Amino acid sequence: MANIKPFKGYSPAPQYAEKVASPPYDVLSSEEARKMGEGNPKTFLRVVKSEIDFPKGTDLHSDIIYKKGKYYDARDDRAGKENESNIIIGEANAANISFPIGIRQVSGAIARRIVCATQISDSLKKGEKYGMIKFGSRTEVYLPYNDEIKISVNVGDKITAGTSIIAEIVK
Fold first, then answer.
1. Core-most of 69, 91, 128, 152, by most CB within 10 Å?
2. CA 33, CA 82: separation in Å to the nearest integer?
3. Residue 152 falls in the annotated catalytic set
4. Taking residues 10-31, what's their average pLDDT?
5. CA distance 137 to 71
């Protein structure tokens, strides 16, 4: 028997509704979505057609995606879209729960270097190093938003690799 759980729906604030709204992902090609999202950092197309932020020709089915780019200060709003970056996409297993995870390294203005030793098909264990982000850069972690995972940090919090708890499994 299927276990169906309701989920929360979110609506944007009225002043953002027009900028956030986007057509469904399956009615636009990547190129059409890229044109529609150009100059609008708030569009939901950046979620449902995330390839609009990758260089043309990127293999969208690769588990590791590297993007050449600029070197704005990692705290600058332009850094997330325009800076050199590397994203690792995979599946995590914790407390007998499997869930998707993304880890994105974004270079900054000072060291201008991303180190990623992980290769496609590598299996990483808790606490294992997968690469290094140099001084002045940032790392973004993407986790599902649901009742089983409680995020323990907020955007902008300073954390320490290997010691800070960023999320907990809630059963």
1. 69
2. 18
3. no
4. 84
5. 9
Assess contact for 64 and 119: CB atoms under 8 A: yes
Q: How far apart are CA 167 and CA 103, in angstroms?
A: 14
Helix residue ranges, H only, the chain: 17-20, 30-37, 45-48, 79-82
pLDDT, tens only, 73-125: 988 989 988 999 988 888 888 888 888 888 899 998 887 778 887 877 778 88
Q: State how far the Cα of 79 lies from the Cα of 139, in Å rounded to an integer.
A: 12
Cβ-count burial of 86 within 10 angstroms (0-12 exposed, 13-18 middle, 19+ buried)? buried
pTM (2 d.p.): 0.62
The active-site residue out of 29, 62, 137, 164 is 137
CA atoms within 13 A on the CB side of 148: 11
How far is Cα 148 from Cα 70, in angstroms, rounded to an integer? 37
Cβ-contact 167, 149 below 8 angstroms: yes
Alpha-carbon dihedral sign for residues 132, 138, 143, 147: positive
Q: What proportions of the chain, in percent to the nearest 5, are helix, strand and coil? A: 15, 25, 60
- Domain positions in the chain are 13-53, 62-144
d(Cα 43, Cα 2) in Å, to the nearest integer?
33
